[in-house]
From TrEMBL:
Gene designation per UniProt: metAA
GO BP terms, alphabetized: L-methionine biosynthetic process from homoserine via O-succinyl-L-homoserine and cystathionine
Site feature Important for substrate specificity, where: S192
Keyword field contains Lipid metabolism: no
Protein name from the UniProt record: Homoserine O-acetyltransferase
Location in the cell: Cytoplasm
GO MF annotation, one: homoserine O-succinyltransferase activity
Keyword Acyltransferase appears in the UniProt entry: yes
InterPro entries named in the record: Class_I_gatase-like, HST_MetA, MetA_family
Enzyme's top EC category: transferase
Positions that bind substrate: K163, S192, R249
The protein's annotated pathway: Amino-acid biosynthesis; L-methionine biosynthesis via de novo pathway; O-acetyl-L-homoserine from L-homoserine: step 1/1
Amino acid sequence: MPINIPKNLPAGEVLRKEKIFVMEEDRASTQEIRPLNILVFNLMPEKEKTELQLLRLLGNTPLQTNVTFLNTATYTSKNVSKSHLELFYKTFDEIKHRRFDGMIITGAPVERMEFEDVNYWEEITKVMDWAKINVTSSMYICWGAQAALYHLYGIGKFELPKKCSGIYGHVITDLTVDLVRGFSDEFLAPHSRHTDVSLDEIRNHPHLRLLSYSEDAGAFIIQSKDTKNIMITGHLEYDATTLADEYHRDVEKGEPVEIPVNYFPNDDPTNEPKNTWRAHSHLLFYNWLNYYVYQETPYDWHFVEDNKEDEIEYHI
């Protein structure tokens, strides 16, 4: 089934060349079908690259999916054109009256800052609180995961002695959980961050379960026990060359960076890296959309009685 995207979105042409079934909004509106509505709060600086990465994964399932992109109103990105944002993005005030079947909040280049010092922190927390009532299931990626762990569950982050960058091996703690159904006992995934969260705090938290971790990179897949929130501390959505692009960018800036672990063939940055995590990336998103979004969301939100704020459990 297709993924429905805004007309003329640049990522659309790339997705078509990759044989991913995409459908623009005007055609999708003529079909008698209840698609999934997914909100993507894209905080990454290179928004068009992130759009393509996420749409590629959201579009590789049998489910028809409408995607709405959200941008901060309190901060204007410097790495994407104003016209792109005006054409393809909404602000929270424009969508807060709606309900969504799923939501993704991406990473952001602010991880070394205290959460409260991020100039759009109030806006992010407002969206996370709104999602408790208006979104069936939410996925938080990298800094987004750390923000959710902090705001929703009271777990802070700490700075690492050096950047965690590379491809790391991970294990699954419980293969019977639907989110990791079909995963190998061990699998690879990219990480790219300067901060981390405590494994012990996650393991001991009454409302969280640790589904996957790495001996070297720490916690990876964390799920709330009510299954509404999924936190991914790494970047399964990354392309094969994304870490290479980040590494060469940092080298050009003169930053003291090390070669990403287990990434370049023979640890030689002139060699082209391979994508060794693609299958598990698609599997994770497939499982999320199927088991936690499609299977759980109401067919028609209008028939769902509105929840009251005081019925929502705040876990801090």
